[in-house]
Write a structure and sequence with these properties.
Layout: H1 2-117, E1 122-135, E2 140-144, E3 157-160, E4 163-171, E5 176-180, E6 187-192, E7 198-203, E8 210-215, E9 226-229, E10 241-248, E11 253-257, E12 266-272
Antiparallel strand pairs: 1-2, 1-12, 2-5, 3-4, 3-12, 4-5, 6-7, 6-9, 7-8, 8-11, 9-10, 10-11
Amino acid sequence: MAPKFKVNQLQASKLIKNITIITLVSLSFFLILFSKSDLILINNIKNLSATIVNPATVIISSPFRIISNIANEYNQFKSLKFENKMLQEEIIRLKKWQTLAIQNSRENNVLKKLLQATDNNLNLVKTASLTNRNDTFFSNLININAGYENNIKKNMAAINERGLVGKVIHTNRKNSRILLLTDPNMSVSVKTISDGVFSLLSGFGDNKYLVSSFIKDNKMPKIGDIVVTSGTAQVFPVDLLVGKIEKIEKDRFYVLPFVNFNNIDYVQIVNSKE
């Protein structure tokens, strides 16, 4: 009986050993399988999260990105607006300087022409600027910033670069008043350069034409003739430019003065040399 029991004991021990090995192998396989499945599960979860989270992140971040872009564009706009304002101010300053330069150049040119207009037969008493004018239906007057302290006297002639302007009718220490050639109360003895036709011209009161009030020997001039002072009345120096004949009627003619009486800035006060 003893040998048989020993054999069974050995078989049982072998069986337990085999079961243990199988169990360990199965457990190991199960653990390996579970680890792979768990890794796949984790990756799937991560992919699913990314699929869900990424669009949400884009949606959530989009307004902030738009606001940031708008803020940047607004800052750029403000910067460009400021630069534009500075450029406009610089342009305004340059235009002011340009206007001033043109004005100074114009004044210099006028003064040069005034000097050139002074004939060798004239004495230049004073160059003066216009302070104000007093035009009405009955009179055409200007005031200048020079008076008897500058040796200006009544009845002296006033000219500019284009010709005869008028004559001094009143003077005080620092200012003088000039009756313009176009005033109805003004008259000047003239002659034509081409034919020497003598006549007397009077102002028409419109700052435009002079009209003949007397024609010597009834000898009519021609349209286009140049008219200058004759010097016969001894009020104005001889040969001062007056104007050009524009229109002729039956017993009179009209002269368009060379001087633009609506645009007088400077005058020269002159008299004849002794």
